[in-house]
Protein 1
Amino acid sequence: MLEQLATISNELLLTLLAFTVFSISLVSLKKTDGKAEVLVTAGGLLALLVLSFAGTMPHRAAFGDVYVTGPVAAIFKRLFLAAGILMALLSWPGKRKTDVAPFHHLGEYLGLLLLSIIGMCFLVSAMELALLYVGLELVTIPLILLVAINRHELRSAEAGMKYVLFSAMSSGLLLYGLSLVYGMAGTLSLAGIAAKLTWTPLTVMALALVMGGVGFKISAVPFHLWTPDTYEGAPVPVTAFLSVASKAAGFALFYKVVAGLFGVLGPSVVVMVSILATLTMTFGNLVALQQTNLKRFLAFSSIAQAGFLMIGLVHGGPLGLTSVVFYLAVYLFSNLAAFGVVTVVSAATGKEDMRDYLGLSESNPKLALVMMLAMFSLAGIPPLAGFLGKFYLFAAAAEKGMYWLVFVGAVNATISLYYYLIVIKWMYLLKAAEGRQRIEPIEVSWASWVVLGVSTVAMIVIGILPQFIHWAEVAASSGF
Amino acid sequence: MGLLTTIILIPLLAVFVIVLLPDRQKQAIKWVALAATGIDLGLSIYLLVDYLHLISGLPGSGTSTALSLQYVERHVWLGRLGIEYFLGVDGISVLMIFLTAVVIFCGVCASWKHEYRTKEFFAFLLLLVTGVFGVFAAHDLFLFFLFYEVAVLPMYVLIGLWGTGPKEYSAMKLTLMLMGGSALIVVGILVLYFQAGVGSFSMSAIAQAKIPASTQAWLFPIMFFGFGTLGGLWPFHTWSPDGHASAPTAVSMLHAGVLMKLGGYGCLKTIYLMPEGALMWGTFFMVLTTVNIFYGALVAIQKTDLKYITAYSSVSHCGLVLFGLGTLNATAMQGAVVQMFAHGLMTALFFALIGMIYGRTHTRYITEMGGLFKVMPFLGVAYMVGGFAGLGLPGLAGFIAEVQVFIGAFALNSIGHRLLTILVAASVVTTAVYILRFLTRMFYGPLQNPEHAKLTDATFVERVPLTILVFLLAFAGMFPGWMIRLIEYSLAPVMANLEQARLAMLP
């Protein structure tokens, strides 16, 4: 029993941390300013990240093979922890004009974040449908609360509402698909199901339902409708977290249920995923072209990025998994860097429109530089990590012989470059004209600098040093 | 650390130094840039001389003996796909590295008066150069492509921020068209890699692996168009006039002088990798480039803005590069590479001069100039030399290039090819028309604008780059032997591949 518990020590410690954070504001006599909660959360997560290399994520099956932390799952968990740390730091309560995060509820806010991370950790380790589903709900429910946590703000409430409705809908689809699968296979274990499925119309229907359900989670077109409004209305750090960690979890789920269960359907899965990828990339890109609100802009950019990621899913083998895991890591840091800048600027000035970033390169050269690197990394420009990431995704499709998909991806990368360059245009090229003023110098807290610094270094280092892609490859060759 | 890595890293190091310097230290920033490019120029001269020394021992005509890569640095780099940090040069790369070093050194000299946001300007400029050196030195296709994109992207900010005219539009058009081209290239690289199946991105390994002819048949035009976009291939040349006209002096020099050569260089590599595809498509691209040559020259005749004239003449001259490559004939391809070198020098010279003249007269329209010889004889003579090189006057580098291309192309054994060659050779006349027209308009006759009488001739800092460029144009024109030897040996493997493919395609 003890050994079994040791297997999930990472999750147990996370739970402990979550309740510690919840209770800080309860036990302190005065009203807290939130700094203690942020420090405890970030510090705790950092400690867990360090401990994960010292054995809190043993590669061992537990609870009757329901729970397994394989090498890929371990990478995912570390990404979740890293995203948690950075998001907690982004919520640091400094001097600010608008509340990016609710100060008086910082304890609850960060506690919910931790609960969601626990859900993600269970999700990537689950080897059985019931646990998988419970994990998924544990991810989603705290996120719904987080999205709506600025409850006096109409936008936030609306965002929360949309997120609830669409999550419920997608969970329904997913459950329906999974119940069909259970009916056909008679077991809940993923490995057991994969062995028993055969090609029947019912299997294809189950696949379609499951893909629809998971499609919502990763905001694939045409299941993306909640994304822009939810991203715009949620507090910026929550949006950042939604766009990276929750999306990474969605891709883990996608890989587990689609590639894991429906391997027998081979070509049908490939066709469906590649069509979904093409639609998602193209639609995300075309709509992103017209956005000026940076949160909406990043929402559509993240839809397009999900499309790129799906290119890697087309390849069921190790190269595909490598490319997806690696790109998720790259995307996480690049997107966090972008959202970091948006959070800082939004907190200090209340501005979220890219036209307000006029002259940022002169008044705040460092912020502009970070944003530029983030845009280039997302667009896949070397030597930033996004380049190697995209190259691997394309390589995965090319190994499958799907050259047309590589071509579609490459063309979409060029289109995406256009709107990423527009952000750079506002920051660097355009000069103040009548009616538009330059953005004023912004004071950035140390916590935000940590986030921006870590993400920037990660964006550069991951694409150049061979260790990172090597980790992904070694992990992917032994699977989840 | 090897010589090639040093050449690549020095500008990058200078970027970091410049970023750390405070914004006010404009002089210091310029000196750092000048020092970095000066060291690189020295190193590239050493590389050139050393390489020439190396081949001096080889037997006379190099077409039969292939010379392997030199200065190889090869380290396993990223992942299991076999991506390597693999540098190595042949004679053509050496020549191009030398050209790059010359042009950027002259470019920095020509930007000596730069004032607005100097720090960022030189940082981006040197970053760009790092990429260019990298492309010419790389032998691994992944690394090649990585440097290629590094060389293209800083252009967006460089043109958009320091340019003139409709600069944001030009910058965006240029960047997107070139990145569209590189989208084709990345597809090409991946298809080549997986079809070759040798688990390596090394160009020579892929070339030896024999890509199936059926793949080459569709992949060759994709890659050729991809690189051709940067090489100014009609109808994908439209970024070039707008981009070059809007760019600041040093950037135009570098872009027209060196970056367009990346396109030609890439096309040459495409031929090397896919000889059968080249044989299938060579004539098609010869026709397209004929349009290039004429179209560029005819539009240049109508323009009055100096930058547009030079930009369109670049389209025309770079068309000759691609035309020479498309013939797949050893002599003509040699001429094409010489043309890359010659055009690099003369366009850099043109754009430097335009920058200097604009700095004085504040106009770029030839209709508003006249009789400038009287007030700026030095600039005038330099412009003359550049112009004569452009129209292919014997004794200057352009002549060596054109003659070889024409001779080689005419040697092709079909009426159609010969007609094309005659047509292209006739374009020399249209070129002469616009070059002589703007030279007379600007420099001869009475001083058109009395204000211009007060203008001064070139300063010392300005004379340095002009002298270097004029000297090299004349030197390469009068003593082309060393250049031909460099190219001859390096074309040998390409020609051998083509010969094999020709035999394989015989029924």
Protein 2
Amino acid sequence: MHNIFGGLAQGVIYSLVALSLVIIWQSTHVLNFAQGAMGMFATYIGMTEIDRGLGYWWCVVLSVLVGMALGGATERVLIRPLYGKPEINPIVVMVGFLGVLEALAAAIWTSTTRNITEPFSQIYYQSHGHLVFLSPFVIFQILLAMGIMLTIAALFRFTKLGLQLRASALAPEVSRLLGVRVSRMLTIGWILSAGVGAIAAVIVASGSFGLFPTNMDGIFVAGFIAAAVGGLESPIGAVAGGLLIGLAEQFILAYWSPNVAPLGGIIILVVALMIRPQGLFSKNVSRRV
Amino acid sequence: MSWWTTLIKQETTRSRVLAVTLLTLLTLAITFILPPVADSELAGGAAIAIVILGLSWLIGWSGQISLGNSGFMAVGAYAAGIWAHHHTTTPLLFTFVLAIVAGGLSGLVIAIPSTRLRGPYLAGMTLAFSAAITPLAQNFTSVTGGEGGLFLNSLVTPHWFTNLFSGPNAAIDANAQWTADLAVVVAGVMFFIMANLFHSRVGRAMRLVRDNEVAAELMGVHLSRTRTMAFVIAAAFAGLGGALYSLLEASVRPETFPLTLSITLLTLMVLGGIGTLSGAVLGGIIFSFSATLVAHVNSLTGVNPTSNVGANMQGIIFGVLLIVTMLFAPRGLVSVKNPLRRLFRARPLMRSAKEVH
Amino acid sequence: MIQVEQLSVNYGAVRALRDVSFDAPTGQITAVLGANGAGKTTLLRTISGLVTPQRGRIRLGDVELVGVATENIARLGVGHVPEGRGVIEELTVEENLRLGALSSKVNLSEGLDEQYARFPVLGERRKRHCSTLSGGERQMLAMARALIAKPRVLLLDEPSLGLAPQVTAQLMKSIRQLCDSQRLTVVLVEQNAKSALRIAHQAVVLHLGSVVASGDAATVAADEDLRRYYLGVVVP
């Protein structure tokens, strides 16, 4: 398999999206269908500053900050009123939000693809005259994504905040009885999730795919499938799921036909669910969502 | 009073025939009054109403959320379109049946993995399906005509009809009128079918499965078969609606069925009222005049319709409408005594129920 | 001191609490007794702010508690061990304790040491996930978690539930010791009236949401009618 790196590189992006979905799911039981679009929107706001002369890295920081703010605002304004209502309502609201963000982005910045001036070269290395599908950008992509995931994991595992976040998700009432400001934790969960999503969007936009309003659609779907395959309860599962899908896509591209690639995600999802309906990594016995 | 109530509730077949016939005739009459442009829009709305019927069935009466209906529309449209493109003299009825069958089959395929899923998993699965459709259509160029799509010429206005019109634009006017009337009649037939389905054993079983799985199983209702049936029906309706829509557009192209169409369908359904026949009608009407509506908003706010903002105004408006409706009036504009709460099996978002020893 | 005044709570048409009034004096154990469904748990949950009353007041010292958010009531020094203990299974023993200490100004390592000294079993199991704990151990953990924050008030909801009689007896003794040594105000909800009355100073008996008796624990314990009709204790 010659393009393992390509698969991994794409896979870590899916892992990031999957992770951001799992964070929100664990804390508020909402599947944020607008996750990709929010990241895209934040990237637009951050990256357009490049035109005004702001350096690439500052733009990245800006995009992430905007993304986090967007996440927090979304939880407060759109999701909070829906606590206690039927499960379907926030799904529909997020789908609507997805539509608004994409249309708004096209309205403000047009649908033309923008290519960000790359911080790293995207030219593949060569080894013994053969192309190794590895470029500085690919390395950057993989390292950044892994770095973020490890940071998040450490945050949840070792910090006071992380403990409170986990407790608020696992047992909100008991946590309140212990003095934890659970509603604040929920907002923070959304903020973190949106930040992770924004990084994924920044990476996608900086790469050869480019920045355009619907660029995160396919990636969101793959990220969702990764989370579903891993079981929405498990961050590790989400990460593993993302890598799995990235690699599987390369497999399909190499050994089947590129035309079928759009179906790759579905195929994987179907197979995974048939093997283990509760997700490959989840501890629950039955998936009664 | 009871005559009227029977008509509305459509509990007997006779009252259903009557109600649908009346509504169809009324709408046909309207098409004769409207200018040709409005007729075309109405026609589009009729096609969409058919799709919404199916979607309402799936989400409203069987309780399964699906974001995949634009995909089912595409399947029906392409199946019918590819055939019609190569066999231009096919009778229209055959094309429609083909669309229904193709749609239904795709519904079956998607249903197999999906009926085990709930809530967000199901939504995500159907999302994946409709997101894959446009790229697939673009990829298999030889079959689907790729980006450019296929040209369809099946909705030919018969001569006797054209002769009813006079004036410089007689042919065009007649065509617009004819296609609109055709669409309305087809929609009327589908409404009739749907009303019958609702009151049939299938419909009752579906609602039972939605509301109370345990009771349903005790009564011998096969859970996953019923749910699969719901998908098939919804997809069949969507397939027909998609085919009709493409025929009206005289072409079937990948860009007709983007992911955002699923969002639009959802919005229209929610606005009209989930799980109601009249809601589907309302949704279709709103769709018909959404272009006009958007134009009005554009002129009100002074936006240039060809600018970026103007072109995307529809997406923005629909998205905002969906959000606002779900936040403030989830039952939609049609207030109906629907057991909506039981429908979606309310579970608290914060899992305070899951307290642990 | 906790003062409950004319507290009424409705769940829709069901009146869970009707005009409940009593005082829980500082440094004493007030037992709240009654059969299932009498409203005991609702009472504690209302004090903690998880339930909003339709009428009535609850005072902690001179602070009005009705209308205050649960997490803030906890931060005021009200420790509540809920029905079922509320031990978070997916976390370890130590994580549960850390959680308890988070919102208070207590020094974490000192607090941990203190609780491990008081409950050595917990010290042995500190890194284990709580799903592996027995009923008695969970009760200890739930208490330690509430105590680590050095509360002024302790609300205990059926701590003896599911525990063997010897364990219950031991538990009750510890509660009394804690109350005495730390001058806690304890509101003890129990179905097991006998063991509760042994350690309590005051008692309140609820029946279908209303107070049917209150006063000195010994007096309540001695009242035969009370015991027979409301406390389910068979008079020999």
